[in-house]
């Protein structure tokens, strides 16, 4: 990867089990949780009796740092090559989240393979050691006491686990919060051991578990480390504690570890094939810079979710609004993320939708439009945004439109509308709501709510139009031709009205119908291209896209004329409107530049300033799945009208 990632993924499993390196070199700083709080891991290589640091803050540890020779990131693996004293050490951190195998996809485990070789022709003895601190199983170090014990795993795997003494399972919820229950499992297979230790740091003691292996460069030698986490119960779901998907067949964390070691070689071949395929197809679709952004986004998007089974045995796929407000299964976060999941496994889009339908059908939800969310992670007990059911801060057109497009696109990809049929009462109610209120939305919020309420929002109207078209597609798939024609004709009429009302008179279209001379990204209209509905003449879309060039700053086009900040997901959706690949590449290149040079060293932010490249807010959010929309469009799998 030519990009300098703003933060480098090491362990990427779910919103709690997450470790990153927010530095150019793995030895420059303490490893961190995606929130930026320390999740300290320390790596040392003792070469012929002299200890060197390969992971962690070498200066604080008062150890010489190994030289970083190389760093590379693909969709599933981060690789570092370190060197010192005639030895080259290669570290490959892999989370094999392969989307076609949901048991594997939800497996709470990341590998680190450590391989040594000689660079000076001599034979060296190398002890590779990795320590993981109590910060990985506590909200903050010292919060509770911890227990540490060795665990017996078959086939020569040495394992030690660590967890809080108190084990307050699922007691807390919130955004800037880390897990304080369950158990971390650090394992190694090789000529090694796993032990508990206490290491001094500053003036405080902090508990660590440690795994190590003795290697030699007389021949290329390696050890395989794993980091696993057993969270016991994963979510509160409308009052019930539910478990992660990987437990559904009775697996335990011990059996998962056995499988993980037995399957490593096979999984690495699959992981490499998956990553290579993503890079090649993304490069073909949108260029190498586009492909690199997808590589960096993939594990982040996966690790912003939790895959579980509800009390009825159905898949739910729960996102967390990371550094936004901690909301769970937010509809206007799911909506931008779906291109990645439509492309790889649309069952996961169904999993995002089910909690919303369940809540919307409850007696608690009083409105005839779709909810915004179903809780604050990891508690899914009902909407928390807008004080739950406060009518003044809802997003009626936004969320109805999002849900209809999500369900319609899922059914098109699967060529099966049975999922929509299950929820037809809600879907029709929401489509009718958009027919009544979507042409010219009143003063309300949309997904870009950080800019406040806006009346007559042109882009929000586009969402309503495309959602009604999506509902028409569902009716057509279910064999109701009359209803399909009725809703499609309504969408066509609304589109014609939109063109007249939004026209600036110079080939561009407004932010709001009553604000001539304004501009905004019209990202919602991309579904007209993806579905093949052709509600808007090509010359309208292309003249609007051409008008964007004069608004592009060094690090991308602003979201609209109100501020200089932008959103990465909407920027790529807007770029996908381009008729030519060259125009797409030109439009997204500043986004790559932003991630390559931003001073905000956090997992990919989706909200940043286009002049300075500084983060405005948000990080590690699942909306980066939206970057895959060009790949989805190129595949044609979501096109209903060929």
Question: Could you characterize the architecture of this molecule?
Answer:
With 642 residues, this protein is of the alpha+beta class. Helix content is 33%, strand content 23%. It has 17 helices and 23 strands. The chain has helices at 58-61, 102-105, 253-262, 264-286, 288-303, 331-344, 347-360, 396-414, 418-422, 424-437, 458-477, 481-502, 526-531, 538-547, 568-575, 581-597, 629-635; strands spanning 8-12, 18-21, 41-47, 50-55, 67-73, 77-84, 87-94, 109-118, 125-133, 146-152, 158-164, 183-189, 192-201, 204-216, 221-230, 235-237, 240-242, 305-309, 315-319, 379-380, 565-567, 607-609, 615-617. The protein has an eight-stranded antiparallel sheet, covered by helices on one side. The longest helix has 23 residues, at 264-286.
List keywords for this structure.
alpha+beta, eight-stranded antiparallel beta sheet
SSE order and pairing:
Blueprint (H helix, E strand, L loop, with lengths): L7 E5 L5 E4 L19 E7 L2 E6 L2 H4 L5 E7 L3 E8 L2 E8 L7 H4 L3 E10 L6 E9 L12 E7 L5 E7 L18 E7 L2 E10 L2 E13 L4 E10 L4 E3 L2 E3 L10 H10 L1 H23 L1 H16 L1 E5 L5 E5 L11 H14 L2 H14 L18 E2 L15 H19 L3 H5 L1 H14 L20 H20 L3 H22 L23 H6 L6 H10 L17 E3 H8 L5 H17 L9 E3 L5 E3 L11 H7 L7
Parallel strand pairs: 16-20
Antiparallel strand pairs: 1-2, 3-4, 3-9, 5-6, 6-7, 7-8, 8-15, 9-14, 10-11, 11-12, 12-15, 13-14, 16-17, 18-19, 21-22, 22-23
Helix pairs in contact: 4-5, 5-16, 6-7, 6-8, 6-17, 7-8, 8-10, 8-11, 10-11, 11-12, 15-16
